[in-house]
Amino acid sequence: NAGVTQTPKFRVLKTGQSMTLLCAQDMNHEYMYWYRQDPGMGLRLIHYSVGEGTTAKGEVPDGYNVSRLKKQNFLLGLESAAPSQTSVYFCASSGDGYEQYFGPGTRLTVT
Amino acid sequence: GEDVEQSLFLSVREGDSSVINCTYTDSSSTYLYWYKQEPGAGLQLLTYIFSNMDMKQDQRLTVLLNKKDKHLSLRIADTQTGDSAIYFCAEVSHGGSQGNLIFGKGTKLSVKP
Q1: Comparing C-alpha atoms, which of A25, A1, A21, A27 is closest to residue A9?
Q2: Which 3 state secondary structure label does DSSP give B89?
Q3: Residue B96 near chain A (CB below 8 Å)
Q4: Quick one: three-class SS letters along B36-79?
Q5: Is the pLDDT of residue B98 over 80?
Q6: DSSP letter at B35?
Q7: Does the pLDDT value for residue B81 go beyond 80?
Q8: Is B100 close to A48, i.e. CB distance below 8 A?
Q9: Which of A25, A31, A43, A50 would you mutate first to test chain B, the one with the most B CBs within 10 A?
Q10: Average pLDDT score over residue span B78-101
Q11: How many cross-chain Cβ pairs, A to B, lie less than 8 Å apart?
Q12: Which of A62, A82, B19, B37 makes the best surface tag, with the fewest CB within 10 Å?
């Protein structure tokens, strides 16, 4: 099992560009999450999903959209990137809503 | 609102015990967690404790929970250089049946040989 994988690992965007981050899990987990990690801020929840076809807002959802068309995938989209979205993005999944398993992260820089 | 507080740095000598402390605000939290993050890597779940317990031991790790003071600690016995990492405390947020976690800012543990 690969666990939780994230694509890409690194990306540099110019302000105003768009991109999609892909998270995939092979553990048949119902719950999936997107977090961002900023220096000195810990991890903050952006959006989450409790099952295929569902999404919900977390603590810092503005500027991001998500989709969960397939149970194993959770996509995070930035429609118009801003420098404030420079961060490390982590995806996580959980089978029971309690034990979360994290991916390796995507480092995004917006110039 | 909900908040999780941790000290930012801890330095110990190899072989000593490390104690990382955390305070949280949500008294209704059902689970409390400790995650480890090594440089350039994702978060690894180390251990967790259910709120009706006051202690959990797992090999070199001991978790103590004081619900009255909303205080959680992680003790690492016989700390090794491989334990150098950032340790995050987290609680399940209010109404968190979806498993939404509130993380502390992390404690950077440095282990000196």
Answers
A1: A21
A2: strand
A3: yes
A4: EECCCCCEEEEEEEECCCCEEEECCEEEEEECCCCEEEEEECCC
A5: no
A6: E
A7: yes
A8: yes
A9: A43
A10: 83
A11: 53
A12: A62
Q: What is the dihedral of CA A98, A104, A4, A96, to 10 degrees?
A: 0
Which tokens belong to A40?
A: 């000195």
CA distance to A10, B22, B61, B107, per residue, from B48 (Å): 31, 13, 11, 17
Closest to B30 in 3D by CA, of B65, B75, B74, B73:
B65
- The residue-averaged pLDDT of B72-97 equals 88
CA distance B20 to B7: 8
Report chain B's mean pLDDT, rounded to a whole number.
Answer: 90
According to DSSP, the β-strands at A42-49 and A31-38 are: antiparallel
User: In this model, does residue B95 exceed pLDDT 60?
Assistant: no
B95 touching A (Cβ < 8 Å)? no
Does the distance separating the beta carbons of B42 and A90 come in below 8 Å? yes
- Region B63-76: mean pLDDT is 95
